[in-house]
Design a protein that fits this description.
By secondary structure, this protein is of the alpha/beta class. The protein has one domain: Response regulator (Rossmann fold). Helices cover about 40% and strands about 20% of the residues. The protein is built from six helices and seven strands. A seven-stranded mixed β-sheet has the order 2-1-3-4-5-6-7, with helices on both faces. The protein is globular and about 35 Å long. The two termini are about 20 Å apart.
């Protein structure tokens, strides 16, 4: 992502939420929203056509859920990085979402406090798991936990 502006595809089925995220992102000169999608099929199609640098993707999408869409996006636009923005906060869903190769996960209720930190880190090549995600893989060892994340609002590098 060496371009002057990071090109973002915004995917959420709730149009007021897309507008809200757009308004947050418009405050930054280094970001440009190049497209939007309201379902998983549109997300895959637009990611292949637009080849965005970053995709902000909901899990709970109609027609094709966000996790399955992310798997298809890996083929349609393999260079695009994905950050999930979702109401889903269960460990199983978060692990499955990150297992697609996504670089971040933020619970929607925390978006206002965590989105900019997540964007900054992912744009620089890191990964981010928000504080609302709880403890990932609590049954795993400390070494395995470090590769997935820890409880709290830590910035994580995978």
């Amino acid at each position: 992502m060496a371009t002057s502006q990071v090109r973002i595809l915004l995917v959420d089925d709730f149009q007021p939420f897309r507008l809200y995220i757009s308004s947050l992102l418009q405050k930054r000169n280094d970001i440009r929203i190049v497209g939007e999608a309201a379902d998983g099929i549109e997300a895959v199609e637009r990611s292949g056509r637009l080849r965005p640098d970053l995709i902000l993707l909901d899990v709970g999408l109609p027609k094709l859920n966000g996790i399955d869409a992310a798997r298809q996006i890996r083929t349609a636009s393999p260079e695009s990085k994905i950050i999930f923005l979702s109401q889903e906060a269960s460990i199983e869903i978060i692990e499955e979402a990150l297992g697609t190769g996504a670089k971040g996960y933020i619970v929607k209720s925390d978006v206002v406090t965590e989105l900019m930190s997540a964007l900054n880190l992912v744009i620089r090549g890191g990964s981010f798991v928000g504080g609302g995600c709880g403890t990932l893989r609590p049954e795993k060892s400390k070494q395995e936990e470090d590769s997935w994340g820890r409880q709290g609002n830590e910035i994580l590098h995978f």
